[in-house]
Amino acid sequence: MTQVHLGHVFHLAGRPGVADSPSALVSLPDGALVIDDDGRIVFCGDRGRLPARFGSAETVDHRPGFLLPGFVDTHIHFPQTFAGDSYGGGQLLEWLDQCIFPAESRLADPEFAHQAAVEFCERRIAAGTTAAMVFGSAFPHAQDALFTETRRRGLRMVSGRGIQTVGPDSAAALITSEEDALRLTAEEIDRWHAADTGDVATALLHVAIVPRFSLSVTAETLKSLGELYDSVRDRGVYVHSHLNENNRPGTGEVDSVLQTYQVDSYLDTYDGKFLPGSQVGGTSLLGRRTILAHCVHCQDAELQRMAETGTSISHCPVSQLFLGSGTMPWRRTVASGVNISAGTDFAGGDEWLIPRVLGDAFKVHINEADEAGVSMHPAEMLFVGTLAGARALDMEDRFGNFDGGKEADFVVVDPSRTPALANSILRGVRSSDADMARDQTLFALLMGIRESSIAQVYVQGRRVDE
Ligand code: GUN
Ligand code: ZN
């Protein structure tokens, strides 16, 4: 049945880039969002302009609540569901060794893996994350549990088992032979890619090839994965990994990759140029369905190459604060033209909620040195957390905003469920300039949303939070 949802609508219309998102910002204080039987948006506009043909449709009145596109988390770790706030006394590589590899190894137990899948989906829904690129478990039974539960809850997801063919002792349970890594990945694609509808264009479930990072695999693994990707690229399979996250001199991730592979840049290892001197050794894993998390310490050439191949960044400032990874340079990264989406990186980050990621993005970028410091526009924040995420997943044509014909993924935010948010919306100072007042309200909303504020969550027009 057609449904009319009433509330204050915010979204980014059309296909803006991050820089022109302020001019694409739509704010409809007395808005109506109409969803047809197929879960598609058939109208988004002022309530006063609601076409007469929707007059008899079922109406859900969320006022004075807000309607926002569902949040898109383009980097989150399923096997770290129970590893939030892990204390390891160190940055990335120590934290992986001491906290994360042992935590992920616990999913070897199928019952534990099932509990993790249930909790993971529950936390996602509570956070209003309707679509996500999910870094998967090494264990096929755990991935089966994740895909099964995700389908049961009606969520969108791209995921793939985390591939590790080398690593420290603490990762022993997660490491497989080169041959098994390839076989298990190919089997996961055959089993789960578009398994819900049988058609990649309509599916909610998709599979990614996920080498954990270059230090968890070898040149041989990267070569084989490139060949595998060549054989499945046209089926809409994804690639996901980490890039340039930690640059502690000498012992950090970036230096270790450059030393191990003897390459000019970290990105080269994912771009088929993983042989010493960045010589070509295989085919590239980059493209419109590739998302690389962090990208804090990129060379200009790396940013340019990501932009030219349509590879997206998952920006994870909460995690970068938690793990002492530094700050992705906002202006320089935006200037390269690469698409920048948002990731919690849970449990690298200690938040499940994309608006908390956007809030920390605002805080870290205003703190960048001198000319680099920037006050993000709230439309840019909303863009990064919604439409840019859909673009990173190469599904911008399907969701990410409220343009007519798109699948209706949205969240209902009820400020009264979070008194601090309600008060800043009701009692905060607003400019006499209408655009500024609009921006102030959106900023207050994005900074003030907590899990408690999210009243309802919809994917393809269906409620998933009940
Ligand atoms: N690099 C390799 N593995 C990981 C991980 O699990 N989390 C983060 N933040 N970075 C990584
Ligand atoms: Zn991560």
From TrEMBL:
Q: Please give the cofactor(s) recorded in the UniProt entry for this protein.
A: Zn(2+)
InterPro entries cross-referenced by the UniProt entry: Amidohydro-rel, Metal-dep_hydrolase_composite, Metal_Hydrolase, Metallo-dep_hydrolases
Which keywords has UniProt assigned to this entry?
Hydrolase, Metal-binding, Zinc
Report the GO terms under cellular component. Answer: cytosol
- Might you name a Gene Ontology BP term for this protein? guanine metabolic process
Q: Say which domain of life the source belongs to.
A: Bacteria
- EC number(s) on file: 3.5.4.3
SUPFAM superfamilies from the entry? Composite domain of metallo-dependent hydrolases, Metallo-dependent hydrolases
Q: Where is the Amidohydrolase-related domain?
A: 66-440
Specify the enzyme's EC class, one word: hydrolase
Q: Which GO terms describe its molecular function?
A: guanine deaminase activity; zinc ion binding
Q: What is this protein called?
A: Guanine deaminase
Q: Which organism is it from?
A: Mycolicibacterium vanbaalenii (Mycobacterium vanbaalenii)
